């Protein structure tokens, strides 16, 4: 089966599989006290910290999955009487079965957006009732980069949000499940798009970009890092055989695999867009900035596509679909689709 449904559906990169095989030798102390975890944590921290800055903070906590990373991160920066502001389309609001809010005990304040992205202007009306015991206290904002609509927050846009939040003593949490795709799109480093832009805590993913499993919570604030060991354990996100989560990040970061995989996925999406544009009945509903395409098509064409490819509807009533390319999308995949969509 070939799929444009999600980059979660793609396989695991051979270098990652090789790293897992190499980690599968002899015995190793559990719960992260192993050499693979130490190396992975150091490699991740290097992406976000200037080694000459002794005050830089980038504490790394490996977890099982994206929902776990988001839940752990939100618990770190909220209280049970707090609230997290997010886009209505945000992953934590739509796709995680309420896990982050349940585990943190906080409320979510979803905001309507045109493109999946929050702005200071959209956030400001909700920064009210601070100190009033009758109301939930706004404590954090959640953004996804790449957003759930396939759009990208620029460095300047992230800075604008973090600057506003920090005036109120609030935290900015970034869901970086597709952070690699965003960085490739913008031509910037992961550090520039996160800690340099004022992000306080990050869910750093690789599963959508060639890894098998696992993500990392990266905290850039000492007060948030302080209790994350306990939060991770209580959230059932501490792996006993953590070396298998950690080992994947070694080739992922050492060999710039994160960049190469994301660039390939983004490039394939651009080629896919050019193919879809050849059919005048296809209407794009969002800008193509990374590896996700949102578009509408007539139902006869949709049914033809369904005969050959698995994909998800974004809005089935409107005939709006989401196609996602991956690190292993091939020219053959695109050629087969081109034969179907050509008018």
Brief account:
This protein has helices spanning 14-23, 35-48, 66-77, 91-94, 99-104, 120-123, 155-167, 179-186, 190-193, 222-225, 228-234, 243-254, 257-276, 299-308, 331-341, and strands at 59-63, 82-87, 107-111, 137-144, 171-176, 201-205, 215-219, 283-284, 292-296, 312-315, 320-324.
What's the architecture of the largest domain, going by CATH?
3-Layer(aba) Sandwich
Indicate the overall shape.
globular
What strand order characterises the main sheet? 1-7-6-5-4-2-3
Cα-based radius of gyration, to the nearest Å: 20 Å
What pattern of helices and strands is seen along the backbone? Answer: HHEHEHHEHEHEHHEEHHHHEEHEEH
- Classified in CATH, the superfamily of the largest domain is Type I PLP-dependent aspartate aminotransferase-like (Major domain)
Figure out the total of helices: 15
Tell me about the biggest sheet? 7 strands, mixed
Please provide the count of β strands: 11
CATH class of the largest domain: Alpha Beta
Distance between the termini: 25 Å
Low-confidence runs (pLDDT<50, min 5 residues)? none
Question: How many structural units, i.e. domains?
Answer: 2
